[in-house]
Amino acid sequence: MTVQRKTRGRTLPLHLLLIGVGALMGIPLLYAVISGFKSTDQLSRNPIGLPDPWVTGNYTDILASGDFWRMVGNSTLIAVATTVLVVAASALAAFSFARFAFRGREVLFTLFTMGLMFPFAVAALPLFLLLRSMDLLDNPLGVILPQAAFGLPMTIIILRGFFRQIPGELEEAATLDGCGPLGFFWRVLLPMARPALGTVSVLAVVTSWNNFFLPLLVFNEPTWWTIPIGVQQFQGQYSQDVARVFAYLVLAMVPALAFYSVAERQLVGGLTAGATKG
Amino acid sequence: MTSTFLPEKRTGPDTDLPPPAADAARGRARRRAMNWLTAVSFQVPALVLFGVLVLLPIMFALYAAFFRWGGFGMPEDYIGVENFTRLFDDPVFIGDLWRCLLLVLLSLALQLPFALAMAVALNQKVRGRAVYRMLFFAPYVLSEAITGVLFAMIFAPGEGLADHVLDGIGLEGLGGEWFADPDMVMATLFLVMTWKYFGFHMMLYLAGLQSIPKELHEAALIDGAGPWQRFRNVTLPLLAPTLRISVFLSVIGAIQLFDLVWVVTAGGPDHHSETMAVTMFQFGFKRYQVGYASAISVVMFGISLVFALAYQRFVLRRDLEGATTTMRGGKQ
């Protein structure tokens, strides 16, 4: 009883704190949404209040333009291809790390985990030169392949941890039933690992979707621009039309936020597992 | 954890065995070789990707850093360590190092404690905590490019939301040029970084907090420990592994900071927000001094390596398997 009364008395400052922080977090986003409904003229006259009248032209113009949808398509294609590649390669490697004892295993695993510690920026310049010599600039593969490569360490670590939890008896049973290693991997391990595969896939999609540095290096031509590049370019192009940039920002946020609201559990679980396992 | 694909234990030296046993030993050796081949063949796709696109570029940067080179053809003009001596004479690069250190210190002193406070607040049964948790973490899933453009506009001198709000509550004096002011740019940048990243650390801490057994808190309560004592003597020690990881990620993040800075200020005004990665980008991609830019990459690599190894050796060594907190148990 006393404990309960005490906690109730303490919750008011707690609520105030949370509301305050919530406002600081939410207001920039809300401000962008509302500003998108103003004309730039209106925005400079009435920067804080509600729009009067509500202008929908900024949003509809962008949604009606092929450019925006092309970038959504590019970002999606690149994210999906990266994810398929990194999860497939990592699952095979993690399987071998988790279920085989072989000479050189620890060295190899350490090599991959070292990849976690190194900033992408270290490799950016020579990677660019390499991609140029392989003729992969202005080519989606020039972003997909390196993204998959840099995603390997985290994905392998998470999947290896999961694969190791699967009991050895299952493997013996599968072997008795005539399954080779590949059969066991494909027919038993992967179906069982679906939650873990979901987690690493969500991580890979979000990382790819938000990647800025690599597409910035690889894509000179607008053909393959992804959303983050598009946002930056749009701001440069319409720097005088502030309201329109706000509308563009909001539309660019929607896919990521929608994806987050659907896959929150996998995303947070994956980040936490990745951080604590790494 | 037993596996049928593990090689069988060898019983003794092959040479002393009678012929049938020697045959069997040869068979075993062949099977071991096959086993090795099978295991390694599963590694091939990952190894090729990683080797060609991660290791090779890093090694090439190590090589190119010793040349004066514009980035075309192969590097030929070997100049020894000149790029490095020039680097450490360059006030901009020295400034990069100081700014990196500043961001690390600010994160440790303000951002991470703030994230911890929020995690502790949201670990209680408080109304709307799922909404707060989602809201605080949401910026983390936005691209740095989007965040950068958003805040460049919010902190636009004189016309952005920040200045209007400060005007509105009678604090005109606090507003200013924000990203355009050499003295304010780092503080403003740090504000934006906190907005974007504290939610991630908060989520890590929340996962850690949830794995602390309730009984420990109850026991401390019965022993008469106040809230601060419980936090200090129960929560903090049990959260230590998570805190150490979060510090590590924060430092690595500061070393490689690029996207946000590039979008918002491109390092300006007059290099006052430049980071190592931005300097590298400027020289490598804008001025075509690829050898010199490679030297910057190498120094970044060296700093990350030394930091990572030292951190593993002296800080993380206490957290062997099982000591770290995870959400896995609940999830899978």
Task: Please characterize this protein's 3D structure.
The complex is a heterodimer of chains A (278) and B (332). Chain A has two domains: 2-57, no CATH class; 66-277, MetI-like (MetI-like fold, Orthogonal Bundle), CATH 1.10.3720. With 278 residues, chain A is mostly helical. Residues 1-5 of chain A have low confidence and may be disordered. In chain A, 81% of the residues lie in helices and 0% in strands. Chain A has helices at residues 2-36, 40-45, 57-64, 66-99, 105-117, 120-133, 141-165, 168-176, 181-192, 194-210, 213-218, 227-237, 242-262, 264-277. Chain A starts with a helix and ends with a helix. Chain B folds into two domains: 1-50; 82-331, Orthogonal Bundle (MetI-like fold). Chain B is flat and about 90 Å long. Classes of the chains: A mainly alpha (278), B mainly alpha (332). At the A-B interface, helix 1, helix 4, helix 5, helix 6 and helix 7 of A face helix 1, helix 3, helix 4, helix 5 and helix 6 of B.
Tell me briefly what this model is.
The complex is a heterodimer of chains A (278) and B (332). By secondary structure, chain A is mainly alpha-helical.
